[in-house]
Amino acid sequence: MSTETALCILAAGKGTRMRSDLPKVLHEVAGLSMLGHALRSGDGCSPSRVVVVTGHQSERVADAARHLAPEAICVEQSPQLGTGHAVQMAAPALADFGGDVFVLFGDTPLIRAGTLDAMLAARRAGADVIVLGFDAAVPGGYGRLILDASGGLDRIVEAKEANAEELAVTLCNSGVMCVPGPILFRLLDKVTNDNAKGEYYLTDIVALARTEGLACAVVRCDEEETLGVNSRVDLAAAEAAWQARARIEAMERGVTMTAPDTVFLAHDTRIGQDATVEPHVVFGPGVTVEGGAIIRAFSHLEGCTVAKAAIIGPYARLRPGAHIGEEARIGNFVEIKATHFGKGAKANHLTYVGDAEIGAGTNIGAGTITCNYDGVLKHRTVIGERVFIGSNSALVAPVEIGEGAMVGAGSVISRDVEPDALGITRALQENRPSFAAKLREKLLETKARRAQK
Ligand code: UD1
Ligand code: MG
Hints:
By secondary structure, the protein is α/β, with parallel strands linked by helices. Helix content is 21%, strand content 29%.
């Protein structure tokens, strides 16, 4: 018996109720398309083949699938005649495949990888067809799993075909199945569309398997995992469920979250042990935060790394390509983009640093701007170690400030400053003795005169 696995992801549906130009399976949960989530649930069983069945906006879905999983084979289902017919479209791509095929739905993003492992274990324990079931609070339109006297799965009855007794069953079909490829396609050849919807039901393979004397079993999961998205309201519910799960996982890995419900993570957020995330922090995709770092309230991070013991925020924005070194400090209303920010360096207030290199121990004063864009091209600012940039300075890139140099507050620096030098472009200061006192006297006189009129 082959121990290989393959994924067959059904993604042909139109998703009318999403009311969207974007195909349903490309809508995102935690910054990753639902199709991506389905592929990721399947990753855990190291599939040697991945087939995605597309239909509605086929090319667009196929492009996305190949981008997410370059090895994916995309097959088109047109017209869409039911879930059984959809899986049949994958038959040519899996003709020579002897291992287990997982059928997943592209609009069901919360299936855990561990759940598929449990299904594989049930396969290894001897059953031929494994169906993922759950106890539904409201069974509604779900297919019902009808068990036999010994607890095996006898058949699946779609809600539209079910009698009153069957409708009373709360054990429902999630849609996920695991079946050896040769058995799956042999059974599908026998499925007809002689039913209420006139569709080829994948679910009919269970009863067909039983007539061949094959064993069918149910593996159960939480209802939350099987949440399928059909509308924007469902999408928000899936997002909420995903976030709740990810926050708990982060805390279980040793991340402190003072108000977890207000923190939003992305599908690939990595936060190390003993990091702290304060309230109202949003992580876009591609963020790694090392242990011991503190992300203070109201910060927004995407495509960046934060090294250990650095402190970010409150109210900081780290954009793609920001790499913040150990023990560095990025304070309030500071935006960093495409910049290596050295160990222990600081930008504590009201600053934009983009396309730059900041040396270790450097201090960037309040209101500093790297002027990285001339309206056409982007340019780099390179600042050495232990530099002091005075407040309200404009650093006009391309420009280099050597190590140990200083820039006087309020300067516009457009030429390089050599190491240990002071760069300053301010107009010279003039002090006029007693001038202020005399001026004030005059102004007060004027005010008094106007009040008399
Ligand atoms: C299906 C199951 C039902 C189960 C429920 C769980 C069948 C016959 N019924 O019903 O037992 O309780 O899911 O949510 O399988 N799709 C295609 N091509 C098609 C038809 C569907 O790719 O021709 C895709 C859809 O895009 C979707 C998935 O298959 O991702 C499920 O289809 P859907 O129409 O939602 O099936 P249900 O009626 O919900
Ligand atoms: Mg459905």
